[in-house]
Every structure is written in structure tokens, then in C-alpha cells.
Amino acid sequence: MNTSPFSTLHVTSTASDRPRCDQDQPQVDATKRVRAAGERALVLGGGGSTGNAWLIGVIAGLFDAGLDMTEADLIIGTSAGSTAAAQVTSATPTELLAAILAATPRPRTGPVQSDGGRVPVGPVADHMERTSRIIAAAEDAADMRRRIGAAALEMDAASDGSRQTQWRATVAARLPSQRWPERTILVTAVDANTGEPVVFDRHSGVDLADAVAASCASGFPYSIGDNRYIDGGYRRNENADLAAGYARVLVLSPFGGRSRHPQEWGMQLAAQVDELRARDSRVETIFPDSNSEHMFGANAMDPSLRPPAARAGYHRGRALAEQLTELWR
């Protein structure tokens, strides 16, 4: 029985399906390889299990309305958005949405909040409390990333190492293909040792499943070779600024552009949008509507909310398709 909170598309892969390290491209970080300018960029922000479902739903809704977001010249994926980026470039949005809606729902756990969601319990609550303390103690975003990385490495030192193997298998099972697509996809992460942001692409010499696993690593470090990484959301939750120079940018943010960090750090989506517009990009954003906001944030890892999150995303995409036609076509 599949226990992953994400939808799983069953694929058969062989060794020849797995991308090989490109010896001609030894630089793992793709930041300097990002195309300086282009036409259309799609940005998929983080948002946990429900955020992934919502992203797929929005893209499927737009797709059914005649707007194919997967044709973007650049797709940027962060955390759950990195999973969605890998998924929508190797399966149709319709197939992905159907897989989410067909999955056997897992029961909710924890007491009910006034908004109908569940009070976070166990690891989710512990992680939120721990990272909130680190954010409060940090001097700036760079200091916060270093502190988060150090805390993650400390936690990992006390583990038996099995989480790495289990996590990679879980992430790989979510991907319809183990190969990087030919189109440009950027997957964000943060170096756990230095706190420096890292961007993976198909030239980084890193398997797609490893790049996505690192971007979604949350509170634990994920090892790739001799390096260890934490969640790409610690750079910024959307990382839309990586689309600088692209004429038209569409940002999908399950968290509604919100950030847990002090406003002066500039990690909120509004700051990223301002940066893009200062470079003459036209930017549009899509957020969950007010009736579905409770499925994100503290409830983002509730697997029972994935189908309704996907449906909410689908209806949101269909509703906004007409006004986005000029931007995208």
C-alpha cells in the first residue's frame, strides 16, 4: 500500500534511464548557467503535500482551459514546487490530477481547528516550533540559513542514516520519469554546511530524484555526493527572482506569497515581484482562494487534504484562465 502523501505514478526505469554525470559540466550550482533573458517563466512555490496537489490542480485547470503552462521556457521549482515541476514536464496535467483524485485518502490525525483543519502534531509541530526559534534568533536571512543547516546536521548526526534511502525512494516514486526533461528546469536547495543557496539543473551532474529530494528536504539534510542540502524554501519560498530577465512570469504560490520571516529580510513574494518588475518583467501571481487557505500552512502535510487541495487548484486555474490568456499566449 502506498503511504506517500503525494500521488504516485508507477514507472519502470532501468539504469539507462538514469541521467549520467556530465564530466564537461563539473559545476553543480546552475545559477551562473541560468539564461539571462527569455520569454515565459513559470514559478512553482513550496507548500508541502497539499501545496503540491494545489499546484497540479491549477496547472490542470489552466490546461483544460487552453493554457499549457508546461510550455514555459523556464520552470523554477522549490520544495513541493520542485516535485510539481518534475511531474508536469513528464506527464500531462490531466493525468497527474487524476492520480491525486484517485488515490486512497489517508485518515486525518490530530484535533480539529476552528477553520476545519487539523492542529499540527508530532514532527510537523516540532519542526515549526524549532525553526521559529531559529528565525527569531537570526540576524538576517543568511544567518538563518546557516543556523537551519547546522541544526539539520546536528539532528542528522543522531539518526541511523536510513532516512536518506527512504526519502529518496519516496521522492523517486512521485516522479513519472527519472530523467531531466530537455526544457530548462531549475530546482532550488541550500547547502547545509554553508547556508549558501544552490540551484540544480540537468547539467549539474545530479540525478533528478536527488535534486528534488534535496529541495524538499525540510528539516533534515539530504546528501548528494560529499555535500548535504536542506530545503530550497530556506532561500525564498518561491525563488521567483531567478526568473529575472524573462518577459512574462507567472508565479503559483500555495502559501499565498506569505513568509514566516521578518519583512526586512525581503523573503516575501512581494519583494521578489518588485525585483522582477524592476527588470521589466510582467508578473502575475496565483494564490489559493479564501475558502481553501486552511489547507496550507500548518495543514500542509495533511494527506487527507490533497484531493480537495487539487480540486481547489483546478477550479482556481479554470477561473483565472481567461484573464491570463494575454500574459501566456
Describe the structure.
The protein is of the alpha/beta class. The N and C termini lie far apart (42 Å). Strands 1, 2, 3, 4, 5, 6, 7 and 8 form an eight-stranded mixed β-sheet that branches. It has nine helices and eight strands. Helix content is 37%, strand content 13%. A hairpin with a 5-residue loop joins strand 3 and strand 4. The chain is globular, with a radius of gyration of 18 Å.
Distance, first to last CA: 42 Å
| Count of runs of 4 or more consecutive helical residues | 9
Mean pLDDT: 86
Tell me the strand percentage band.
Answer: 5-15%
Task: Tell me the structural class.
Answer: alpha/beta
Amount of helix: 25-40%
- The arrangement of helices and strands along the chain is EHEHHHHHEEHEEEHEH
**Ranges with pLDDT <50 over ≥5 residues?**
1-26, 110-121
Rounded radius of gyration (Å): 18 Å
The biggest beta sheet reads: 8 strands, mixed
| Number of strand elements | 8
Shape designation = globular
List keywords for this structure.
329 residues; alpha/beta; eight-stranded mixed sheet; 9 helices; disordered N terminus
